């Protein structure tokens, strides 16, 4: 498929806010109230120059765009089609960042690096990703298609497609229910994929409930045990204590696994 022309990309950049922002009432607002659009238009021109070897000129253009919009985009970064930078103030997109199509980025987002090596050190955002305000996505990681990153989250690990990540550091909380990709992952699959293993996160609530049930059972049986002879009572209590200790160890292990 032939790559779209520069004019086509810029035209899409101007038309995208009308589809993604209900606050837009007039096209003239795009020039005065949408710094993300202005920054993207400058980026399209600067990126076109950068890949042709006019790197200093490209950096100068983006420096001027940063002065006007307070959005810092490196001209070497790759930004796909119909990307919407909403509000935009404080957005930083690093040199080796890759952004797919139909991505939405809110104000204060940083797509940053954690390495000084001259290599791929910034994130990759696949198609349809939404990055909430103030989120920091750091390092050479991949945010899967249609995933969401919560506001002010710090993401340092891959996020599977269709999942939602929040917190510091970010953790997977739920798949996106309206995901459009063919294979819709369950919440458990999101959690397993994000940990890099096939193991699911432990159910801490279940372990705590089982432990409490075992403890209640011991209290209920104490009255019956009192009527037994001493030897049988001792054996029965020891059996219950062993079972309770096992439940307690499982509960503690579940807490450790969740925090790891």
UniProtKB/TrEMBL annotation:
Name this protein carries in UniProt: Serine O-acetyltransferase
EC number: 2.3.1.30
Keywords: Acyltransferase, Transferase
Transferase in keyword set: yes
Superkingdom of the source species: Bacteria
The encoding gene: cysE
């Amino acid at each position: 498929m032939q790559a779209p022309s520069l004019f086509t990309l810029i035209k899409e950049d101007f038309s995208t806010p009308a589809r993604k922002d209900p606050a837009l009432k007039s096209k003239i607002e795009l020039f005065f109230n949408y710094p993300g659009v202005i920054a993207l238009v400058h980026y399209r021109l600067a990126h076109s120059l950068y890949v042709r070897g006019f790197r200093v000129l490209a950096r100068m253009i983006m420096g001027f765009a940063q002065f006007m919009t307070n959005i810092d985009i490196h001209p070497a970064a790759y930004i796909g089609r119909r990307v919407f930078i909403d509000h935009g103030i404080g957005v930083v997109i690093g040199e080796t960042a890759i952004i797919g199509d139909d991505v939405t980025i809110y104000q204060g987002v940083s797509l940053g690096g954690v390495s000084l090596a001259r290599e791929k050190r910034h994130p990759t955002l696949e198609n349809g990703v939404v990055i909430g305000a103030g989120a920091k996505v750091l390092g050479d990681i991949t945010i899967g298609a249609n995933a969401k990153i919560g506001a002010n989250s710090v993401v340092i690990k891959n996020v599977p497609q269709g999942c939602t990540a929040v917190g510091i550091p970010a953790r997977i909380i739920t798949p996106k229910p309206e995901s459009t990709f063919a294979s819709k992952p369950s919440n458990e699959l999101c959690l397993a994929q994000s940990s890099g293993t096939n193991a699911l996160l432990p159910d801490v609530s279940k372990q705590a409930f089982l432990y409490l049930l075992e403890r209640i059972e011991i209290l209920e049986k104490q009255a019956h045990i009192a009527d037994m002879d001493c030897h049988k009572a001792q054996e029965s209590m020891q059996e219950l204590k062993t079972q309770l200790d096992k439940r307690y160890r499982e509960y503690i292990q579940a807490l450790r696994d969740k925090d790891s």
